[in-house]
Amino acid sequence: MHTNRRLCAAASVAALLLTASAAAATSAAATGTRHATAPAPGPGLAPACKEKDLTLKVTAAPTPDVLALRFTNNGTRACTVDRIPTVSFGKLDGAARPVPQVGSAPYTVGAKASAYATVRTVLAPPSPADVRVVRDIVVAADPAHRGRRITAAALGLPAGVRVYDPVTSLWQPTAR
Questions:
Q1: Which of 11, 51, 166, 167 is the most buried (most CB within 10 A)?
Q2: Residue whose C-alpha is closest to residue 55's, from 35, 39, 38, 69
Q3: How far apart are CA 174 and CA 6, in angstroms?
């Protein structure tokens, strides 16, 4: 008997939800309203940075196997990128992993401001033979961007960029 009541209650709730969804769809169609496919930025969160508004600079650091990254927001308003830089290496699979190990989250950079990160391209290889050498890298301030291809020669590394288990810092407001 209780099972029958539970089934009736569940069926009533399902019917109510379906009716409400159909009514909302009919109302939206009648008024020409469209639902957003992506959520709008939350309160206080700047919009996503447009790649065309960013300038990216990559240099080989004085420390071997380290690259210094900087991007500048040339826009007139603050904007957000992912807090983890996207750095891939030639035709190798994958990208530099973040240290500390964290998930994606927005990083806001002000108008005309810069953000900095560091990439260590070689991290404790088991043997020198395990290190790969690539002729170019691709760096993007955000994974949604295409990024910029930079040759090893442009970085002052004519023999190529050495790679083994690369890691990246998160974007930060100052160069360290």
A1: 166
A2: 69
A3: 60
Q: Determine the Cα–Cα distance for residues 97 and 55; give it in Å rounded to an integer.
A: 22
pTM of the model: 0.74
Closest Cα partner for 148 from 60, 88, 94?
Answer: 88
Whether 31 is in a domain gets the answer yes
Give the type of residue at 166.
P
Place of tokens 């998930």: 103
Paired with 157 in beta bridges are none
DSSP-derived secondary structure for the chain? -HHHHHHHHHHHHHHHHHHHHHHHHHHHHHHT----SSPPPPTTPPPBPPGGGEEEEEEE-SSTTEEEEEEEE-SSS-EEEESS-EEEETT-SSBPEESS-----EEEE-TT-EEEEEEESB---SSGGG-EEESEEEEESSTTS--EEEETGGGT-TT-EEEBS-EEPPPBSS--
Evaluate whether residue 104 is within a structural domain: yes
Which residues face 138 on adjacent strands? 88, 149
Residues 21, 83 share a domain: no
Q: What is the pLDDT of residues 32-91, one digit of tens each?
A: 322 222 334 556 789 999 999 999 999 999 999 999 999 999 999 999 999 999 999 999
